[in-house]
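To whoever is covering the structure queue this week,

Two jobs came back overnight. Logging them here so there's a record in the thread.

Job A:
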Amino acid sequence: MTDPYSDLWSTYYARRLSARELRQFTEASLKPQRTFLDTIIRPSAYRPDLGAYMSVSPTKNLEGRDHRIVCNLADDDWQYQSLFTNVLTIATVNDPNYNHPMLRTALGPDYIFTFEFDSDLTFFRQQLGWLRTPKHPLDSPIGQFVAHLRATYADFVGLNVTYSGNKSLHYHFAFSTHIVAQRAPERPSLRYGFQKAWDALAQEFQGFAALAVPASESPDSTLRQPEWYRRLPLGTRLIDKTHAFDVPEGHPVPQLVLWEHVRSQSGRGAVASIFNPADFTRTDIPTTARRGKAASLDFLPGTPEADHCADRLREFYPDYPSFAGFVVERGELRAQFYNGPGDKRPSSYMAEGFASIMIQGSFLGPKPPRLPKPLGEMLAIWSEDYRQRHLAPGGRERTDLEQRFAEAATDRDAAIAAMGTVLDSLVMDDRPCHFLSAPEGISKSRTLIANTPSYLKRFENAGEAGLMMFAFSTYKLATEKADEFNAAHPFPRFGKRFRAVVLKSWSRNYAEACEALGVAEITLERALELGSPSILQAVRLHQPEVMDRIAASFRALRRSYAGAVPILFTVHDVAHEWVKDSASRLMLSPAFWDKTLDPKAQRQRAREETSLAILIHDEVSKDNLVRIDTAEACQWVEDLAAMPHPQGGRKKLWPKGAPLTRLLEGYGLFAKLNPAPEGMTFEDAVAIRDVPANGWDRVTGKDSGEYGAYTAANNPDWRDIYGEAAGRGWRIHVRAWPTTSAAKVLILTTEAVPTAIIRKIGKPWTVTELDTPQIAPDVTDVRPSRDVIARNLHGLVREARADHLQETGRPLLGIGNKMSDLVQTQTHHTAKGSNGYIGKDIVQTMALLPPEEYARLEALNAWCGRDDLIRLHHLDQFNQTAGRNLGFRAPRSGPKPAHIVLINRRLFEALTPLLKFARYEMRERVSQRVQKAGKTGAKAAVALRPAMTGKERLAAIRQALAA
């Protein structure tokens, strides 16, 4: 058989390509590979029954990129076409989105990711080398990458490498979309989901070692767009510009298939999907809204998005015509232009549906260039770029400080450096209360520890005095951080030494002293029997040896920082009680132990000596910020407080200002006659009583349906335990300690729920939320199952550990609730903030909440006016736990530790729309059930006519293109 293009290769290509490279073109011409075209592209090319098509065209100028060509395309006519898109929805000329195919992205059975490196001939020849192998095609460099995709992705279908007709190749990677169809039935951000998957595949493609892609080369990002034209396999290109091989204009060049592999089944062990269903369900990704025949942007002239687009237009048209501004005329947005420096009013314009400037009036300069796409599409692209750059997850516009951090945090080191700048800004400014939310492991406390001397010096220069305190969730963390502080500050700064000490609570000091002396602790009940008003007074009177030991421990504590500035490291409860003049605060002062002072003076001096200048509170929780009680519990306490004393008279059973022992006595008497609500403790009752009547917000719980609709019609005993949260009465109290404990308070968190609470509280809080959009998230191995419920967690974790040990030889540490009797396992709470998991493999569990905790969060939903706090609570736990071994705690080089997530299927589906708030990618392991579902339903067969001879084909192509 004779190659119909032999003259083309010998005349133009032989001068720049080797004989081996020329043979690749000849063999591709003589033995065309068409499986990809016939089984993936053509069956989806025109589906009027589904209202979908793939735009196919011989040129880029097809109006609306519509279906007029593909709907009537005969089998023999495909070879005359040059370009195609991914699947779009069919639109007619009268459709408002007709000229905006970017708004018509549709879900077909497969999605085709196309990559093109439009570089020089040197790199083009290197790419030809990727396709060659002396033996099996999968042994070639590109074949090795395909083998990697087959082994990794259960939805990988195949690869087609098409010659573009010039100096580049188009790599068409096809992936089945069945997981998107199943996991994201509602897809408000379909185009965005495809773009994010393109980014992920591009990163793998460029980084694959066997290909050795030069660092200077990157794929054309315009092909990231589903609607962008790409080269059709076995089509033809009519040369219309300068050609790398000097092929003259008007000459046809075949778009040969140089390499192809279409799998019959996925590789063994492939369980991942290239698609992240969460990217397809985002509601914060903007599109261009259409009204009637004309289009109007989501932004209006003068808004930040419009200013960003204006800057892009000025960059594109730096000379005259020069961009003047946006206007809306007859419902259509236009860009106006000045023709020259003498113009007082802009006369030329660009309409939204066009890519060129309509010159009006006098203009003597050269013809201005065209935009790559019509103005409306470019504005939507630029607007989307602005939002992705300037909007935080959820669509919230970043503050200037947040934006500077997002732009600076290009990698781990840059992010940590930028974190230091943010913290310095917050601590050093004049506002008293700051709330900072930032990723896990980004060195927040380490940076604050390093800069503590500077902070105290600033306060000293401002004439403010007081101690500095760091509060953590556990004594273990407080001790670790204190040791870190002392290691960081071995020498004086600003002429002073600084020494970190761990301050324990009164109850912990007392328990340790009793244990050391071998005596029993006095309980509140025992103090009542002894006739003492409190435990402390009972200890003073009846256990003087214990008080002596506690006094000695405080003297030793003060000696440890003698001659230095003490920096207190403690736990949350100590910080919360500081403003109430707790025993641990007062005992820290020498005045507390000075028996020459009267009690009032003793207390006053102790308060002065222990006042706080700065409080740094790490990892705050929702319960640290607000108290949430049922209306029944509050009413029970109110009834108790109003109850007359049995002895009669005006005495109350629970009088104001009474000592704790007397309150305990009254509590017991009342509870005998009126059983306390379930879960109520004496401490709860005291805390509720201490809230003034006007300190409560009353709310009614609602059923926000955060876990999704669920019924069990076949189970007569089933009840909606989560829907029962609706209608319950609750009271919420904002705690006072955050704004009254110190002159400057900085609260740190990584979580969304506490942040939502602080935003609800409002003044005096300044809220800063940091995210790292330029740093690719680490990936977790998510395994959804209906079996992930509380009673099954032990068995599921044991099974996951056994499988992981067999596969990798490494142990798997567990983090999750309801697993206390498993070894090497912690709860989400106790693992919070820990560095002990760095470099280790983790399995975490995520099950549905107990109904009572669900109801409490529904109360917060009602109070905050939200409907997402339950799901954000789950994502907070996920982020916290994934941050133990991933993200900023992951190794800087080499493979990342494994992080397996066993999650309830119902919960995972409920979380999908909010996964934009996940700082780590939740990549679902594709189950065999889902894989099988994706294979059901045969694709429409394509009828083929007998192939023409080479000469007949070339003659037909010339005739068709000439027409």
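Job B:
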Amino acid sequence: MAQADGHHPQDPGSTIRAFVEALDVEDLIMRFDVDFDAPMRQADATGMLRLARAHTKDPAAGARGVARRVGAHWCEIVQADVGYELLSALQLIEESQRDAERLMAWHTDGALDPADVFPHYALARWHDGVGRIRYRLGSYTASRRVFGTAVEVAERAGLWWALPDLLSNHTRAQFEERAQAAREKDGGTDVEAFVPPMQETHDRILRQADEHGVDTGSVPDGSTPLRHREFLRGYSNALHNLATALRQAGEVQESLRVTARSQALSEGLDDTYRVSQSLMNQAFCGDRPQERFATLRDIGRGEGERARRGWERGRRIARQNLAKLGGGPAGLAELARLLDELEDDAAGTGRRAGLDVDFYAYTVRAYREAAAALPEAERPGDVLDRRIKMAESVREAIALPVYKRAYAEHVRPAYLRAIGKEVSRGGRRQEHLERIVSLVERSSGRELLDLLASSRPPVLDRPAHPLPTRADTDETGETGETEGIGETEGAEGAGEADGTGKATRGSRLPALRAQAPDPETMREMRELLVERAQQYEDHFLHHPLTSATHDDDIAHQLVQYTLNHEGSCVVRYFRFGTSDAPLNGEEASAPDSLGIMVCRNGLLTLLPPIPYAEVTALARQVSADLLDEDSLAPREETCRRIWSLLVGPFWESADRGGPLTHLTLIPTDDIFAIPLHVATEPDDDRPLAARVPLSHSVSVAAFVTRGRHLLKKQLMEDDDDLAALLSTDRRATGREIVKAGWRAAHVHVAGRVPAALAGRIAGEFGADWDGLEQLVSVKPEFFVYAGHGVYVDEPEASGPLIHLGKTDMLSQFDLALRVSLPRNKLTVLGACLAGQGMGSEGGDVLGFMRSLIISGAGAIGVPLWSVQDSAMVSTVGALLRGSREALEPSSTGVFDVVQVLHDHYRESMETAVSVEARVDRLPLALYL
């Protein structure tokens, strides 16, 4: 329709096209930090970049096109970070990862024009954005590394105006990494240690300002050059971090002085985010907190406000603190509204605030505090329910391994208190006991169940940075590998103790923890572990796990299992209590306890609690035995103590009602490291595994619901494949597979093939990644590892590593994501202490055990101390032979791994007299 002036209306599409064509994408990205991120107008910039198709791949655009895509993704990563949309940020990182890697290669090789700052700027800023997300996720080591890369890129390219921000972020990540390690090691950290590095960074930035003529003493305005404004914004960031460090160190007045300077710069830059942070620091310093929080809450909403956009998360923090300061029924009601909002957010598909674990937990704590301050008659009855709902919501939202670190601090204490409350009711009705089992299962072993509930992740490529073994000697100091291993008839007994004495140190596999590599090697191992752990986390960050739904009927399923498997008994250990610090007005805390629930013949029995401090002391006693040069194995006294503390209490309940044909023990926390199978009754010298058919499991849910109890009996087939990875020497010989009774056409070995089998088996490969891939490719029903390893116990990383020949080390993360065993029936990991490192503060199973279960392994045998090679050879050989004997005409074709192991252990006791000699003949703990 014609308008009054006779002209047709302008085509909106052409107007948009004209705008897009005129848009300078590179200039927008270079201006993003100060002109869009500072005033909270990120969406304006990212919207324009999307209109300009800056994210679209254009092969003809070359390196500049790649740099534009990297820069455009950086802008959206920052937007997601400010909005705490961390899942969105991770998706953006994954989308742009390859482009960033290409750009980095060109930058490193000098293929980019040094005078053209844009590609270098986009690359540095992208790494800084990734570091921010890693930092938010609590992965401080990963963030420190990627922030460091951002700094290196900026320094090489001369991006002086961007360096203050990058340096400040890098310094904070370095401190948080050390602080996290200190908290994990001894529960504390030196808050004053943060001030010197932040002061040093601050002073370095001032020197750079002088060098480049940046006026740090005046308030910037619109006439300040763009690069100077970006420099000053980074300087404001450094000032804020320094102010935070000073406040945490107790230097309140100096903190306020530094914050005032940061706030002045931020006001001049119209930097809403940094102004908000300054207001929070002033409030936390006690400087008119109600006024500061009210201002933060109302930024962008008050009359006469400049066109400034508020920071939503900051508003919520302000509301939380104003409610805490106000207290009373009104404060409690506001906190309840805030929790309702968080619970709604956690249930949404975006899961925005649900990922904000710390804020959610602090709000719950504030609700507890407000409730505890009220007269008892006015307190709400939903405080514990709120804690449990937070725990459930967090678990739903944090289906990412890196987030599980928050679980022990924020979530598990709520469950331990809830379990303790349920136990304290004292009821013995089966319905009441089933509720306890359900709570226990809901609170522990959840990450593994999430992994099992998810589709099998694709196997990752081999690591880019292997760690070859440098020495040409084995761990004994003897050169070369033993020739003719497995040739002699008497080889199985070589080096074994007699029935009363101890084996010599030389006959034992070296303990992972007992070895002490030189500092340089240990540093390399630490870096390897950090890198592999980051790859593991990255994989699940980009491929979020399916959150396994808790089955409220799990206890009933356990009851049904024991009813339908005559002679079976399941013992579930669990931790409970109220040891988290009580708030004023709350019930007094009590030390944690160990609970033991026994299920036999469909009947649940809850035993009297055991002080958990006694369990901790026993775990230390076991550890001392394993590190003692004179024993390197559990001593008789320790075995007796294991029985009296952890087995004796349930023995009468387990042994009643007919013969005990299968006992399953499910550990928790420290008990994972305690060799329950060697528990020995005071008046009986037979260890537990030689008395009854015994297995372990990681949770009731894994054992019953996920069907791992079905691994006890399995149908054997004539074409079952046996794969062995042999990183062998004189003390780890690999003779386990020599007399296994296996058809040579179905035996595959990576590593030195025992002479008795050389040239006769189906596959002979090197003990390297190629060989391991060949073994995995046959989908072996039986998998055996024989070799050594080391336990890395460093501030930034800890965990076991085992040798992959002399080419690399295997971590638990490699077994989880680089080894797939989908048809496996039995796996034996024959590296000493390979079963250690399984327990966690959250009750989850960790270490190689978790990784093998994730990989698809069937029944799993692991040693828990420096076992004798002869005992390992004898035991694993018995299991392998037993599986083949099941195929004999007189047999049923069914292999009962629990019964075969028990029979072997029982028979091996006949020639051993002392308890310690008998323990030496029980090298494996069996997990279903």
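Note for Job B: The two ends are 77 Å apart (CA to CA).

Please reply-all if you pick these up so we don't duplicate work.
Q.
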